[in-house]
Design brief:
Layout lengths: L5 H16 L4 H8 L3 H13 L16 H10 L2 E5 L6 H16 L7 E5 L3 H9 L8 E5 L13 H12 L2 E2 L11 H9 L1 H7 L7 E5 L18 H10 L2 E5 L2 E4 L17 H6 L2 E5 L6 H10 L4 E5 H11 L1
Parallel strand pairs: 1-9, 2-3, 2-5, 3-4, 5-8, 8-9
Antiparallel strand pairs: 6-7
Helix pairs in contact: 1-3, 2-3, 4-13, 5-6, 6-7, 12-13
Length: 318
């Protein structure tokens, strides 16, 4: 850090006092001092870097919510609770994703492969990850990429963002998530450039996924089920599908309906099951039943959600 003169430190201290202690806005500080607003902003940043201003945040409360312990006892899954009491599903799921970053960071491998699915919650989580340096890690999509209508469902974009945040490498998957026929899917899986990516699915050290909602739910944001269209939604509902994990649909009892996933280009359940830690992140009023079903699949090692969703899931389980 560059050495700062006593005079410069005094100017930083004065500007910081006006802004932080006297509650003046930056344009007001600029008007009082004769500095430009951009210079005031630079001085405030420098004051933090030089330790003239120290900002502290209250640590999270000690102890864990009882609902987390009860879900762990019932399902043998590590359960983490994020802050949030949001009623709006879109706000709840995004806040849970942001809050999950602190829990996810200690689980990141120093070397190896992280598989990541797309989705609104996972994208929020990725955006909240701190800047790290993990050059020995490769981030790979585990569900087909390419979604020109929604960046949250483009797994290539999500994988690239995560790799950028944690200083890792990335692989892309140049294929859509949902294909016209199962034969098309099998042909694509044999294509060399796609096979180079999907081969990494067999040796994951960690998988980071969301929990897809019911085909009958419309949470106010675009989800993976929207790719299938209304007719397919009705078909899924008729077969009692309650949610999906990385493109694999399941019922409320946790049983997967693999016949429904034959057109989805995604990691196999066998590869997901034998991989490393599988972490699911989801929240919102429409996700309680899907989360309960996901817990019953036996695939998850960890679940991150907010308290209202965890309590709703536990109530359904009871």
């Amino acid at each position: 850090m560059a050495r700062t003169s006593l005079a410069d430190r005094e100017v930083m201290r004065l500007v910081a006092e006006l802004y932080y202690e006297r509650d003046l806005r930056q344009p007001e500080v600029a008007a009082m001092t004769g500095f430009s607003v951009s210079k005031v902003s630079r001085l405030l940043t420098a004051a933090r870097e030089q330790g003239i201003v120290r900002i502290s945040v209250e640590p999270p409360p000690e102890g864990r919510p009882a609902v987390a312990g009860e879900l762990e006892r019932r399902f043998g899954v590590d359960v983490r609770i994020t802050p949030g009491q949001e009623r709006d599903p879109a706000a709840a799921t995004r806040l849970a994703g942001v809050g999950a970053a602190d829990d996810v960071v200690p689980w990141l491998p120093e070397r190896g492969t992280i598989g990541i699915a797309s989705g609104y919650t996972v994208t929020a989580l990725v955006s909240a990850l701190p800047r790290l340096r993990l050059p020995g890690v490769t981030v790979v999509p585990i569900v087909g990429g390419w979604d020109t209508t929604n960046q949250y469902l483009d797994s290539n974009q999500v994988a690239r963002r995560m790799a950028d945040r944690i200083g890792a490498q990335t692989r892309t998957l140049h294929a859509p998530a949902v294909l016209d026929t199962s034969a098309t899917k099998e042909a694509l899986l044999r294509e060399p450039t796609i096979a180079a990516t999907t081969s990494l699915w067999e040796r994951l050290d960690m998988a980071l996924i969301g929990v897809g909602g019911s085909p009958e739910a419309y949470p106010g944001y675009r989800t993976a089920v929207d790719r299938l269209g209304e007719e397919s939604r009705r078909d899924l509902a008729e077969q009692h599908v309650i949610g999906d994990l990385a493109g694999h649909f399941f019922r409320a009892d946790g049983a997967f309906l693999e016949a429904l996933s034959d057109r989805t280009l995604a990691i196999s359940l066998a590869a997901l099951a034998k991989g490393g830690r599988v972490v699911a992140v989801a929240a919102g009023s429409s996700k309680a039943a899907p989360i309960l079903g996901a817990l019953r699949t036996g695939l998850l090692h960890a679940l991150i959600t907010d308290r209202p969703t965890a309590e709703a899931a536990l109530k359904l389980a009871s």
